[in-house]
Amino acid sequence: MKTKLGLLYGGKSAEHKVSLQTALAVMKALDVEKFEIHPIYINEEGRWIKGPQLAGPPETIKALEFSAAGQLSPLSLAPALFNGERQGEDGLDVIFPLLHGPNGEDGTVQGLLELLNLPYVGNGVLASAAGMDKVIMKNIFAQAGLAQVNYVSFIKSEWEKAKEAAYGKVEEEIGYPCFVKPANLGSSVGISKCRSRSELEVAFVEAFQFDRKVIVEEGVTAREIEVGVLGNDAPECSVAGEIVPKKDFYDYKAKYEDGDTALIIPADITDEVYAEIKDMAIRAFKALDCSGLIRADFFLTKDGKVLINEVNTMPGFTPFSMFPLLWKHTGVEYPQLIERLVDLAMERHTEKQHIKYTF
């Protein structure tokens, strides 16, 4: 029998368009002989809209945006939970949340799916939330003994009360150049590189438009190396890849709009450096209690020092995305990668059903 796969995409997030690109790519790659595909679109107002079952892959992103006439309650995804019967014809076997950023990649949707007792692809509540918040993530990495750049963070209300003190702290503890980022956002949205006080002031204003918390990181001269991690309790690493942006840094436009960057796979690194990156990626995966997948990003300095930058708990699957390309070069083709993720989701869900919740 075909697996009833619900694809959840869009979302109330600044990364809404990125999610649409990811969803389009995944839908084009899915084998309709193996999967019964049910698209579920979350529009930018947060409304959930179920589209018709796909008979074949859509050709454009516009085909993925449905009218509010098909609006549904998320609770209807698990009818068996409320009518006391088996899943039946209306139930979905597994959900694939193709969501990036807040309200999707941050543990919120994962928490809902946990309450509905539905299998879903990717990381759980804790890993998703910790992986989305760059400050919490870096604090956990520090506790795990993973080398990383210096960083400081600020809450918007604190910054508004003492802006000069905030800027002074950055200059004293981090220095220039530095990067100012919203703490809870990905895809390089709201990120600025600063070389002076005037640029720092503008960057704070920009970042606080997207979050109530910002992180400021030390700028380092280094190569950007990434690996994909796949698995549950026994995670595996892909080959390493290198990002060589043609601009000052790998921003949103380079990632998703014009592909204005070079992706070198495999990266030209020594076996010793790869072994260190692989070890750190798996340690990061386990420190955050991840499951399914992550993309782990590193800096490799001129003197050969490896620093972990961040992990992405739901990396993009767009034509320009590094994660599927890394696994392709490792020997796992795109359709196989999606099937593997679905299998990992079912494996984790089955394991959870054996946990005792009463005594």
What are its keywords?
alpha+beta, Dna Ligase, domain 1, D-amino Acid Aminotransferase, Chain A, domain 1, Rossmann fold, 359 residues, 24% strand, 5-stranded mixed beta sheet, 5-stranded antiparallel beta sheet, 12 helices
Describe the model.
This protein is α+β, with helices and mostly antiparallel strands and 359 residues long. It folds into three domains: 3-120, 3-Layer(aba) Sandwich (Rossmann fold), CATH 3.40.50.20; 131-146 and 221-347, D-amino Acid Aminotransferase, Chain A, domain 1 (2-Layer Sandwich); 151-218, 2-Layer Sandwich (Dna Ligase, domain 1). Helix content is 34%, strand content 24%. The protein contains twelve helices and 14 strands. The protein has helices at 16-29, 79-83, 108-115, 125-132, 134-143, 156-161, 163-173, 197-207, 252-256, 271-287, 322-330, 334-352; strands at residues 3-10, 35-42, 48-50, 71-72, 94-98, 151-155, 178-182, 192-194, 213-218, 222-231, 236-245, 261-264, 292-301, 306-312. Strands 4-3-2-1-5 form a five-stranded mixed β-sheet, with helices on both faces. The protein has a five-stranded antiparallel β-sheet with strand order 12-11-10-13-14. It has a four-stranded antiparallel β-sheet with strand order 6-9-7-8. The protein is globular. The two termini are 37 Å apart. Residues 82-87 and 254-258 have low confidence and may be disordered.
